[in-house]
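Researcher: Let's try something more involved. This one mixes different molecule types, so please make sure each is placed in the same coordinate frame as the others.
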Amino acid sequence: MTDRIFPYETLHGDVRLGLAGGGLDDHPWPRDPYTQDRRLVELYDLDKDDWRIAQFEMDVTLPSDELEKLNERGADVRAIAVVECSRTCYRETVRLQPSQDEPARWTGTLELERANFHGKTTVHALVVGEIDGYDNRFLGLSEAWALYFNEPDVPPLAGTMRVSWVDFDEPVEELRFLRDFREHPFFTDLQSDQPTLFLNRATRFEGLPALLDDRRRTTGERALHDGERVSIVRTVWMAMVNAAIASIRVDDDGIPDWPVEDWKRAVLRMVLARVYATKSESELLIEAFEAWKSNERAGELESRVQVAIDDMITAGKLLRRTLDYMRSAQS
Amino acid sequence: MLHSLGGLEVVSEAEAIGGRLKEALVARGLTQGELAKRLGVSSAAVSAWISGAKPPSKANLAAAAAVLHVQPEWLLFGRGEGPAVDLDAERVEYRDQVGWRFRPAPADGGRDYGNANVWAFDPTIWVMVRDIIQNSRDAVLMGTKQVQVTFKIVRLRGRHLQEFQKAVAWDQLAPHLEASAQIDQRLGRLIKHNLDALAEKRELLLLVVDDRGTSGLLGEEDGEGNFAALVRNNLDSNKQSGTAGGAFGLGKAVLWRMSSFSLVLFGSNLSVPTGDGLRYRRIMGRCDLPWHGNDEENRFAGPGWFGRINEDSEHGERTVSYWDNEALAHDLYLSRGEDIGTSVCIVGFHDPSSEEDRTPPDMAREIKAAVADCFWPDLARGQLRVAVDIYEGPDRISGGEVSADEYREEFVDAFRKWMEDEDLVEELKRPGDVVAVPVPLNYPKRRADPTHPNGTHEAVLLVRYAETDGSDHSSGDRRLNELAMFRGVGMVVQYLPLKGICMGALPFHAALLCGEGAARPDEEPESASREADRFLRTAEPPNHDRWTSTPDLGTEYFRPGRKAIDDFIATAKDMIRNLVRPLPDELSDGPNALKELLKIGEEEDVHIRPRIHRPTGILRDDGSWSVSARIRVKPGDSRWRVQPVIVFEQESGGGAVVDWKSLEPENNCSIDESGRLVIAPNVREASFKGTSDPQSHPIDARESSITIDLRKCELVEEGVRA
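Model: All components are placed in one shared frame. Result:
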């Protein structure tokens, strides 16, 4: 969160939102969906497919001394849970009930109907109160929880794109489309919800696993290995950036906004931060979008994106290493 | 065994001598008065010897040994020749005196069709084993380092069956069993079926459980004491020790449930003699039948007791404990010499959870597996030893000691590594690795003792990387990917299945050592550990099979008790998840060489542009914002030119930029003619302050929050001066 400044005093200490317990359709969880330390709830792959409503017990706590001061000023402090899903444009607020026993604690139950959500949904707690005659003023915000109704674009705990070996000649039914690319050593799938790099392990490319897999190599093999992997990865990144830029949304006033999919936002942030190192976040998105639309500047953007990607994948370093190998092999 | 008495004293030497004197008297068929006469001492003196109040002098001891036909060393130390017991004589004696008495039906005509407690349990061998050993652990004598429990499955046929039935006065019991079998109700039907089976097969199984190192069945016939609690009363746990397992007295019901005839016999040698100085071979039985009766005259409320038929003014005719008859103990398979502790004999032992008749070796295996499953911590610590044997009549056929390693090898391995503080690692890299991490438990304040504060206990979490052959068909047997939780008692309260704790997790076994269980064997538990132990025990329901909200938790502790437990277990699970979480490269099968170059998501800050740091602002009376902020810069030779702006935040979009009424550089910067700040080279930080122009505000400043941002950042070319 940026450092917002308010025309009145807000909470300095942490607002904490806990999610725990609950279950599916009034039954306990078939498997524990929580990763508490990352505020993560995985609602896909629950060993139950036909559920309708997920329930959670919420718990919000504030620094009690600060709350006391606010209450002395008659702030009538309340805690509200805010649920937002960018994919479905869903937003809901739930008022929490003050705890009878602890003054700085609120509790409540959150019920989310599955049909309203797709992909990542966030839940955070908002604390509001009446300040200087204005009601519902912002006083504090908790860190957000991420609830994944579908498998996330990029595994939230691993942070790397999926890379899978598949025999493109005989793929499983759901990867049937790979048959169309059986003449190619790899295919970057950016259509489905999870971007995946498929590597072809068909006999046609018999040496490919040996070339790419992780093992000790001789100097010559090493050079080939680095060369091939940089070439593949560069192509993949370029495809991802193009897909991400194409997904930039424009609101009614013509102002661009970040793409909906998490991985596209992440890719753009990573690449554009390098392309436009001096720009603020809002500036660089506008800049990139304008350049992409423009006939003259699109090429320049492409070139600068390539440089940024090479920078990220340390292509220069890998090439220098290869050159060193070759030099030492010759001497 | 079964139920403890807090604050026990270990038997004194004088008491031990008294016990043996008494035994020898019984064996010779002499009274205390007769012995006194022969030795020329007062009856009071003999009485004092026997009660242990005062030991006999050396001369009197030698004389008594001669009269009683035992060696003096035996009287003194229990070594050497003891009294030769004439079993036949004793047999004649007890047969006239033992029998069954059933509680008469109440005058109000109420019919109680059985003890509801009996049905409150999931009747499996696993539950029975757990309960029996748990109770033995609770009854452990102070100063005892090890409890020993022996399970004997005894098959009775032919002569052995007849002798047993004769000893237990089956002819008196049978009419009651048959009357109960007429009742078309759950227990009645069960007894009918089992009576038919007995008549057909002429075979009876006993399960005899002996324990050693425990207090024995203490106390008088009625009232307080664990004897009355176990044998006479319902729903009486008689637990006084602060860390004892049971709290409701339900546990014992499982014993009767495992009997085909709801019949359980007890034999015990007591650590503390009764008020009458009685101590050895206490025998009594109880048969928990439903209301039954064959005719108007003979109607019975249900339960009946086996023992000495006694008549006194207070109780009328009833059965009481039969003491000091070795023949009776022997014939009922309850003989245990002079070892302190208790033997329980479940008559017509069966597995009510199985449709099939199970063989003794099959049930013995299940008992062993259950012992190891529930008590591996205690077995591994050497605080518990358990043997399971199979007998044909009085002859031992096979058996042996339970080894925790055989059934729970992985958990025991992790536990040993922790106990010895050796071979522990920081992270799980290869199968067999064990990590130990602390897990905080914040236990609340006690209501019962309000001066006692809440506190934090550090439990120990052990996680072991499991060896697997890739398949998990055996995971159910090995409790793969499960978390075993236990406290000081050393009994696993619950196994939490955590399969799928996160995608692609490493296979593991985990254990959570709580309360006094988190102290190494040579360590004295801290007070926080003891408090946590007490708290968790209070959170155990009657089955002791999890930690949750119990009525006691609500009455004994301030809130939030349940939440403290939930948080504790959630924290432990998070820690496990972190430990078994796959490395990113294990997520998909592609080469790391590619994946390491395809990381998407958070990375270190790559921005080189200056950033606003610690902005502050005050709304002034004239409606303007007065702000100040620092600017963080990556130091370099070049200068940055930046435009600070105040932005009125909006629900969506970039917000509205307002004009400065004044903008003043403070440190390490200057202002140029275009109104931008130029930051000096080679500094890390600059600062400025300014005031907004209220005329440019889109709305009343009191109604919006603001942010301060830097726009139009650029590096100033060399030679250009501010």
